[in-house]
Specification:
The chain has 7 helices and 6 strands; from the N terminus they run E-H-E-H-H-E-H-E-H-E-H-E-H. It is an alpha/beta fold. Helix 1 packs parallel to helix 7. The structure holds magnesium ion.
Length: 185
């Protein structure tokens, strides 16, 4: 059975923004993260992280460093994240996976039976909003991380703007699923 997914940005959305986070000891979940993710899981959503990690391409940290951080996130969230997809490339590498490209979402669509009409992209940057718009799914901008800064210069607008992930999740769960055209159908 198809399930809606929440495509979640990582840095500044699920966890505190740390410039090029490379060490597990610098990982900080927001105080509301565990509750927000639990609400999503209890409501039947797949929770899928899609994260640009150009620090790998910049050789600031390795894929293994990043996997160690993801493993610790799973420990702190009781394995609630269904999958992590990452883009290791630099902004000018011309890859298809770096947001606002859809490569990571397309990978998730290949791996899971996803109801895109009920799915959302949630993140703190303009590129997260653009990713949702390019994929024609609902979008939420959170004001944690770079969110407040990016809100001031938005050129394309999300479905909703929320104080943080927890508020976004409450709004998403309360919203009636809308029939939206999707480039994936
Ligand atoms: Mg972010």
């Amino acid at each position: 059975m198809k399930r809606p997914a929440i495509f979640l940005d990582r840095d500044g959305t699920l966890i505190e923004e740390v410039n090029f986070l490379s060490r597990v000891e610098d990982l900080r979940l927001f105080p509301f993260t565990a509750e927000a993710v639990k609400l999503l899981k209890d409501s039947g959503y797949l929770v899928i992280v899609v994260t640009n990690q150009s620090g790998i391409g910049r050789e600031i940290y390795t894929v293994d460093d990043m996997h160690a951080i993801h493993a610790q996130i799973q420990v702190e969230l009781d394995n609630a994240i269904d999958a992590f997809y990452f883009c290791p490339h630099l902004p000018d590498d011309g890859c298809k996976c770096r947001k606002p490209g859809l490569g990571m979402i397309e990978s998730a669509l290949a791996d899971f039976d996803i109801d895109l009409e009920g799915s959302w992209m949630v993140g703190d940057k303009k590129i997260d909003v653009e990713t949702g718009l390019v994929g024609n799914i609902s979008t939420a901008l959170v004001l944690t991380g770079y969110g407040a800064e990016h809100q001031a210069t938005l050129e394309t607008f999300p479905t909703l703007i929320s104080t943080n992930l927890h508020d976004a999740v409450k709004s998403i769960i309360d919203s009636t699923p809308k029939a939206r055209p999707s480039r994936f159908v």
